[in-house]
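PROTOCOL LOG
Step 1. Enter all chains and additional molecules of the complex.
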Amino acid sequence: MIRLSKIWKTYEMGTQKLHALQDVSTTIEQGEHLAIMGPSGSGKSTLLNIVGCLDQPTSGEYFLDGEDVAQLSDDDLAEVRLRKIGFVFQSFHLIPRLSALANVALPMVFAGVPAAEREERAREAIDSVGLADWSDHKPAELSGGQKQRVAVARAVVMRPGLLLADEPTGNLDSASGRQVLDILCGLNQQGITLITVTHDPNVARLAERVMVLTDGAILREVEGRKVSTLDDLFSPVASGARDELA
Amino acid sequence: MSMPAAGPSNARPDIPLRELLGFSGGALRAYPLRSVLSMLGIAIGVMSVVLLTSIGEGTRRYILSEFMQFGTTVIAIHPGKTETGGLPGVLGGTTRKLTIDDSEALARLPNVTSVVPTTMASGPVEYGGRSRSVYIYGATAAMPEVLRFGVARGSFLPPGDPRRGASVTVLGPKLKRELFGDSYALGRFVRIAGTRLRVIGIMEAKGRILGLDIDDGAYVPIATAMQIFNLDEVHEIDVTYEHEYQTDALAEAIRQTLMSRHGDREDFTITTQTAMIETFGSVMRVITLGVGAIAMVSLIVGAVGILTMMWISVGERTGEIGLLRAIGVRNRDVLRIFLVEAAMLTSLGGFAGMVLGLAIAAVLRLAIPGLPVHTPAIYLVGAMAMSVATGLLSGIAPARRAAALEPVEALRAE
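Step 2. Run joint prediction.
Step 3. Record the structure below.
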């Protein structure tokens, strides 16, 4: 379970203060699927980075599984990321010199998993995203959709409780994007908490809950299935969807 | 899916070196040409260090062995003292010359095994119609033993009172060949500086010692030599003794004995063989060190190459570093990854340089037999240690740069 309380993230730009996040509070249940939407610069990536322990808030409390991670040291945050959090990025972030299998196994190398077990678990993970036949291929030999599936396999190979996806389909055609979303939703159904940052209402619609951010603050939260158009979501005037949730 | 039990409070152990080597080695293999070229810089540096210090060490050993052939338990006494100030006869007392009597007095000191007074003069040696101008050494019967010379044929000078001469001579092998060719020389008479002497022995070939061809010379009893050349002093007294540890005590005893015989003046110089070897050895070591330091410059150039290469590599792999941080790799692990990469480059380069240096040394030994080349094992260990240290040093700045990257910033790079 994730509990964010009064999260602020402030950057000092000379004499001006820039608030990337303003007073964000929310609770995300274990196994929930949350989509975060908002225009560019609305703070959604900043929020994802804080939830992912890659960044720390200027103020506020962040409890992950009951532990106050806002106070942890750099090394302890790395430990949290290694054990509890998986990341999927828009640009895949695969290491080009490593095979698909080695990319998937990478987190286990640094977690001290013995080589034999690493191989077995990496094969299992790559099989679960349907790429068993592509294990020995380098990322350059894979399509965009295949690369993202390898990245998903890498994100879950340490069996984290939380999966963070930053525009997971942003660089993919709709068919490949669909495949990746199916895999992410399948993992969510198995119990992993899934938080997706997206521009795409079709992606957001898959989530149970959609959080809309503007200017670093939560504009509204709606039920995923109620999302129809972007205009609907971002309009400053409350729509029917919001009334219903409220 | 359940949360893993391991909490963040559990300190993670460092990544095993084996994993680091695998990961960093893969990164180096991804750019083979770049890696090999930057290794080459280190290889050339280590090669020149190994090669030049080997030549230095070889030269040191060569010169030492030239000295050592006389043994280490020899003390030489020469007339005169470089430190002696003033003019004899003006500032108190007269300088006494070293004499055969002095040498006989030293022979009575404890622990002394033999004493050889010698003189050296150049003069003509004639036989038949031939004449050859060479060094004539005045010596006593003990000389071959003291200086470790051997007699090839006949015998050396006869033993007996060194104050009494004898009309005999022993020829060096080269002088014998020049005067007699292949014909028999023993029992024949030669003229040395006009005096007729009978040849009683031929020395073994000894070659040059520090540039002096001792094979091209003749030995005569010291009293005879002093008489022929009209000398009133001996040029050197060589004292041999039993054990090296007696050196200092014996040198002091010699000093006391000679001073009491010379009116309490130290008008002679005592040189122990060990002191000579030590002085020479340390001079050569300094030269070797200096040559090695010059060779180090090329190693430093190689290190700068590694530094540049690693710096560029960190810049190019910012996205990879971001990813590593995101999947939970600590910044100190990132530091280690890049340090190990640099150390791998330099130790592989260093090893190649070492092999190259040894190979060239072997070729040199074959091509120029006169050039003394010697590579002690400790130099090789040192060269390897230096290579690894170079890698760690040149890797520090790039690795720190990599470790200091903010994960969020680094992830944005791609």
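Step 4. Note key features.
Chain A has one domain: 2-245.
Residues 76 and 130 of chain A are 34 Å apart (CA to CA).
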